[in-house]
Amino acid sequence: MPKVDQQTLAVLSQEISGDSKLNLNFIFLSVASCIIATCGLLLNSPAVIIGAMIVAPLMLPLRGLALGAMKGDLFLFRRGATTLLMGTLISVALSAVIGAIASIPFTEFSPEILARTQPNLLDLVIALAAGAVGGFAKVRPKISDAIAGTAISVALMPPLCVVGLSLSQGAVFSARGAFLLYATNLLGITLACILVFIWEGYYVEKIRMARALTYTVFLTLPIVIPLSISLGQLLRQTRLQSTLRSILLTRTITVGQQVELIDTKINWNTTPPQVRLRVRARPDAPLTPKQVFEVERLVTREMQQDFLLVFQVESFREIRSADLFGYRIPYRQTEVETEQSREPLSPETLESMTQTLWQFHRFWRTPMQRRTRQGRDRVDLDELDLDELDLDELDLNELDLDETDNLNDTPD
User: Fold this and answer.
1) How far apart are CA 391 and CA 6, in angstroms?
2) How large is the greatest C-alpha to C-alpha distance in the chain, in angstroms?
3) Percent residues over pLDDT 70 in the chain
4) Which of 123, 124, 146 is nearest to 133 (CA)?
5) Which of 128, 119, 134, 146 is nearest to 61 (CA)?
6) By CB neighbour count within 10 A (0-12 exposed, 13-18 middle, 19+ buried), where does 63 fall?
7) Contact, 196 vs 70, CB < 8 A?
8) CB-count burial class (<10 Å; 0-12, 13-18, 19+) for 383
9) In angstroms, how far is CA 342 from the centroid of its own chain?
10) Cα–Cα dist 108/41, whole Å
11) Cβ atoms 368, 377 nearer than 8 A
């Protein structure tokens, strides 16, 4: 197994000891990243949470914790543990204050928050990979620490903020799940850093190295059991949801046509597990207990396990414009649209319209003059505005040209 010289190991220890020191830089970055992450969780914004991941400095004392444990350096181990503990307390307290100010109830927590309250074994795999990146980036100067910081902080700051938000609303169970995720990531990152340091030869004695590795493994193993159980439930839940959708869509004719599956929630703590299906159905086609029994029987047979199905039905009705008159009114262009879409008039059309205007003018003027002379109407023909005439509304077929006088006279 390769081993670096004492001078190289001392240089690395000095650098990591400086990174693990509790100073203003660490506190400021911790506060800033906690505020960003908490707001991103409340807003359900992955982009904002990623920004907090980049800023978070919690990866720095973790490497000091790993190197101090592997070397048997009590001073470095204490410095890393103290800095990490202060960062943890600051993040939980600040996120709890923000959660209390926001006063968002637990039932309205965003999916980004709820996703961090149910860790599983895959989260430990992610933590191991992130810790390996962090340790490898430190011993290889050509790899930027920014890459490692992004990989590490993705696993530490958001769970701490979820712990604070859950505690602010009294959701102890969710806070416990988020803290389990934080502990999983912390131990996974530490174990991966130790393995990378050993691989690169950054150790003093094999006995100390083996002791530190053994202690870390023993601390990590207890959390593997609940994480494995959670992963098994996740896989069964995914399979159950797929089975339910398949049954509702393809294997039950009546239920599949009557309802639309919206959401599925499974309570594994009951015996048998209770599955609540939120569906939408028409009021004229309600579900019956017999139909629920048939679906329940198919699910039990497919999953080889007994389940209790509870359908939560939301009724809906379709409303269309045809419901107003009994038929649908087709679309017609408005006058504005007709005017805008009308093509320019040709010279022949303009000339025809002019002739029609003069004929109408003469037809209108002659009877008006006659009635004026008889004293029946008093109309000032000079005040007659021909521009107000609407030719579109004029129907020349209704005109009796035989009864008009002087129709062939030339206009004045």
Assistant:
1) 104
2) 133
3) 74
4) 146
5) 134
6) buried
7) no
8) exposed
9) 47
10) 12
11) yes
Residue 145 has pLDDT above 60, yes or no: no
User: Which amino acid does the sequence have at 334?
Assistant: T
Q: Residue 355 is encoded by which pair of tokens?
A: 């002739």
The per-residue b/e assignment along 320-331, b for 16 or more CB within 10 angstroms, e otherwise, is eeeeeeeeeeee
Q: Please, which pLDDT band fits residue 38 given cuts at 50, 70 and 90?
A: very high
Q: Quote the CA–CA distance of 88 and 213 in Å, as a whole number.
A: 24
**pLDDT attached to residue 231:** 87
Position 245: which residue type? R
Taking a C-beta distance cutoff of 8 angstroms, is the pair 180, 159 a contact? no
Cα separation, 369 vs 375, in Å, equals: 10
- Residue whose pair of structure tokens reads 């906690």 in the numeric block: 34
Place of tokens 């007659």: 384
